[in-house]
Design a protein that fits this description.
Length: 250
């Protein structure tokens, strides 16, 4: 009970006990002062309503290079880039070039003609090419080793986005590859060789969802190092913006 209230009550009782009866107005004033001094205690305290926090799924993001590959489910995860050629003046020395070729905006325009790498691609690593062709262009993109038509020659050829060929000496096996390739459209082509097969994928640069994978058995392809070749044998031309040799996460 409040100290002021106690004091007022005591005062009233003292006046009564001492027969000094207070007037009616004094009693009313004492009651009003007692009521004003009293602070009622709330009978219930409202607590804030509990709102559960929604769970958050944390996704681990792994940065890899290059970032231009499509879904990891389609191709191996790239660990790092071994070689990155943009065909400016410095990288052109990495290639032997034959036929008709020129550069424009650091892109190589080839055809009819052929380029083949001075360097060797290690078997199991990938070759990633960014390119487009003019209409009616015949093109071969190749992993190979040895003189062509020699018994020692081994090669995997990606031909016009229409079929794949595995050469063992002069003999070869052909596999159809029906893909709706469009001239004057930028494509990425990623290829690599496993111990007993060749694999890869082609997809549109601006629409990665438009693409197709391939795999072909390559028995007795025992060479551990390979040359990378782009060949425009007859007509048309190819424009190459970039070549990357990549190391995959094993």
């Amino acid at each position: 009970m409040n100290k002021n209230r106690i004091t007022l009550i005591v005062s009233v009782w003292v006046m009564l006990l001492t027969s000094c009866a207070p007037s009616a107005s004094q009693i009313q004033d004492a009651i009003k002062q007692t009521q004003a001094a009293s602070t009622p205690v709330p009978t219930q305290t409202a607590f804030p309503t509990y709102t559960p926090v929604p769970s958050i799924e944390v996704t681990r993001i792994v940065e890899v290079t290059p970032i231009n590959t499509p879904l990891v489910s389609d191709v191996p995860l790239v660990k790092y880039v071994i070689r990155d050629d943009t065909f400016d003046g410095s990288s052109a020395s990495n290639w032997d070039m034959y036929g008709t070729y020129t550069t424009s905006n650091n892109n190589l325009i080839l055809g009819p003609g052929l380029i083949t790498s001075h360097f060797n691609v290690i078997k199991g690593d990938g070759g990633l090419l960014l390119f487009r062709t003019k209409p009616s262009t015949t093109f071969y993109i190749v992993f190979e080793w040895g003189p062509f038509n020699d018994a020692s020659y081994r090669g995997f050829w990606f031909v016009d986005s229409a079929y794949n060929v595995f050469y063992k000496g002069p003999a070869y096996v052909q596999q159809d590859f029906a893909f709706a390739y469009k001239p004057d459209t930028w494509y990425y082509l990623l290829m690599w060789l496993n111990p007993d097969s060749a694999q890869g994928k082609i997809w549109e640069k601006d629409h990665p969802e438009i693409g197709k994978t391939f795999k072909m058995d390559t028995p007795d392809f025992t060479n551990s190092v390979l040359h990378y070749t782009v060949n425009i044998p007859i007509n048309g031309s190819i424009e190459i913006a970039n070549f990357q040799e990549v190391k995959f996460v094993k």
